[in-house]
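Example 4.3 (complexes with small molecules)
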Amino acid sequence: MLIKFNNFDRQYQAYKKELDRAYEKVMTSGYYILGENVQKFEREFASYCHAEHCVSCGNGMDAIFLALKALGIGTGDKVIVPSNTYIATWIAVSRTGAIPVPVEPNPDTHNIDPKLIQDRIGKRTKAVVPVDLYGQPCDIDSIAEIKGKYPSLKIVIDAAQSNGAKYKGKIVGSLADVTAFSFYPTKNLGAIGDGGCITTNEEEIAKNISMFRNYGTFEKYNSRYIGINSRLDELQAAFLRVKLKHLDEMNKLRSKIAGYYLKNINNKALKLPSVPDFAEPSWHLFVIRSKYRDKIKELLISNHIDSIIHYPIPPHLQMAYDHLNLPAGSLPVAEVLANEVLSLPTDPFLNSEEINYLVDVVNKFKP
Ligand SMILES: *Cc1c(COP(=O)(O)O)cnc(C)c1O
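Answer. The structure with pyridoxal-5'-phosphate bound is encoded below.
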């Protein structure tokens, strides 16, 4: 038995008829950029997220970048980011010219700790970019409370991993000024390539982003800004429209797998994820924590079970961020997590035999 982290082949087989038809329709339409499928997908995704507007773009990092640009963030500004996240969150901030200011996570949820944010706010702090890490919604109400003291502070949620997740019963997508999504193939709503989008309830922001993603164009061959080229293809939009119809059923399957792990993994050598009452995660990842992480990973490898470390090096310790002078030891919670976390597969197309087998192997681990 080989247990794969992502079973793209099975997903394709499950939705093959619809995906193949979508492909053929785009191919024969002869229209490949910013056409009918992109427009329809944007409407359908906005409606799925209970947001007024959705603007698609080339990938998830551009979505965060475009959101920050539309909110007026630029050179010399400061933006609060989690110390424990994928580096794209930080790079999106840096690309605007702003400086990422890291805040440590709550050690239980691994998401940014709202209590630690206020101390890091200074004169030039313009925004916070919390992340719904592993698909677990961040505590957005506690983060938004800070706006009471700093009304001009903007919040952009990096929801790359939380497609379809809920916070206090509300779906992720209209809980902040702007929400940024990724449709990278491994994400819960994955394209057959790159893709991303933002959602917002503010028309002005949506308009700005839809110009900025397309050379700053507000009418054909007439640019208002020095924008970028970051568009979602018609083909990807057509595939995403098919997969969006199946997102809830795929997320339910992930949630079933996570529930099974939570109930049946009972090895004291590791800690299972903790889910706060306010969260219905999308279970993009099921992240366990253990001092013996590397040994557990080896055991899984020898039993042909995929697992991945998200993420092995926190952004502040990567060479790209040498200039921030944040040495080892400066963000200890993120650093410990990088040494102890391990993601188990929650792919919706894993079968019960595979999941049972995985649980047995994990439960047999001895330090
Ligand atoms: C995947 C991801 C991104 C970036 O998305 P891309 O589409 O790969 O650019 C950003 N933030 C987080 C937390 C992610 O997981």
